[in-house]
Amino acid sequence: xxxxxxxxxxxxxxxxxxxxxxxxxxxxxxxxxxxxxxxxxxxxxxxxxxxxxxxxxxxxxxxxxxxxxxxxxxxxxxxxxxxxxxxxxxxxxxxxxxxxxxxxxxxxxxxxxxxxxxxxxxxxxxxxxxxxxxxxxxxxxxxxxxxxxxxxxxxxxxxxxxxxxxxxxxxxxxxxxxxxxxxxxxxxxxxxxxxxxxxxxxxxxxxxxxxxxxxxxxxxxxxxxxxxxxxxxxxxxxxxxxxxxxxxxxxxxxxxxxxxxxxxxxxxxxxxxxxxxxxxxxxxxx
Length: 286
Description:
twelve-stranded antiparallel beta barrel; mainly beta; globular; 2 helices
């Protein structure tokens, strides 16, 4: 009897792992927290996004005297994103920048979702390719020893490439892994131009309107070359209502976008150097 039960459980588990659900929506928006999700906008949908991040919640620069970070602004971003088709989307945005080391940032991306989880077709995962680029137009420093000196225009550019692989389990739980490569054209002598990171995330849908999520990016780099770098970790609560997507998050990252939060996170959660942030997205049919 025990042997038969074990065999039955094994067969059921194999079926769950081998075949996905008929999934239309793995995650509830095109972003998880800091980084992209596998989702793309529907064809001819224009989305306007506002993203805001405050100062340290606690630690030396937070606490009650700074209203737990609300007196300070780490970064703010405005963006327009568009669904060219149900599989392809483009985006363009502008952010203040954190000043460590960049300010006045323009960013753009292209995302193509080439796999969709589907039980009938035997496809157990969804997958997307995401290419991003950022440009700083801040005034160049006169100090040749600063990374913001920018001897040539090309030194103002940074890029990232990501493969986003996701799977939805049942109606509530979604998981994702995001191998990502970031390249910055100009860095300090003790830094690296190219970095590889492996992101991971989950989202759990509490109801039709509410969900929670977490996201972590581990950067594979030398501690000798980049001793002050920290890995990006974020937690979020999401609310979808009346055509709006509102997401409240906590993260140790200051900047937005893969070319910023992956290589330029220096805050430590254990020192209270995490911050409250939010994003609001509104869709328009074009």
